[in-house]
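To: structure subgroup
Subject: Chain for Friday's discussion

All,

I'm putting the inputs and outputs inline so they're searchable in the archive.
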Amino acid sequence: MDLAAHWQKVEQRIQSACTRAQRDRNDVSLVAVTKGHPPETVRAAADLGHTLFGENKVQEAKAKIPLCPGRLQWHMIGHLQSNKCRDAVYFFQMIESVDSLELALELNKAADKWSKTMPVLLEVNVVGEASKFGFSPEQVLAQLDELNSLRRLEIHGLMTIAPWSPEPEKVRPVFRQLREIKQDCEQRLGAPLQHLSMGMSGDFEVAIEEGATIIRLGTALFGPRSIARKAGQGV
């Protein structure tokens, strides 16, 4: 697998989506999701100039991040258990998956122990899928003031995982609704929120068109994990 060529194709798709939406490409950050990929794959991507990566599990991140270049930035994008908060605050520069007030309270305690201010995104389960975590749209607004009062957490925006569909257009309403929820949150806070993290390998172009500022891509960049392992060998 030619990782550079593969990456270039994805970059072209991002640029095209930004052009369609009349957006600046620099307004969209790409989190390269390395779940299940070895440090060699991360280094191969870093050698191409990429610096922002995402992991789904704290245990995997603890083992992997120390073996990767120190200049990289890491986002926690998977469901976070309360007993992993201390490690999450230590290893990650942003936690995108704050999915409950209870978790936010634990993260605030952990960040206080590290004397660290933690940028976070609030995960919203827009359509109420039973298989997904996250605030309901009603909950995130009702609990926003309390979440915003946690002195060690900085709310930078919202995140969602759209239902899977072979037709990306079918999930456009989900992305649009998250954007509208962000606007409601901004009105309640009286301040802007920087980020909408939405869009993965199967639907990121639609997400960009609907206002995503962060997209989270794994397969679209690296291919299946077994291929990605071969791509990183010896790098």
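Points worth raising on Friday:
The chain is about 45% helix and 15% strand.
The radius of gyration is 17 Å.

D.
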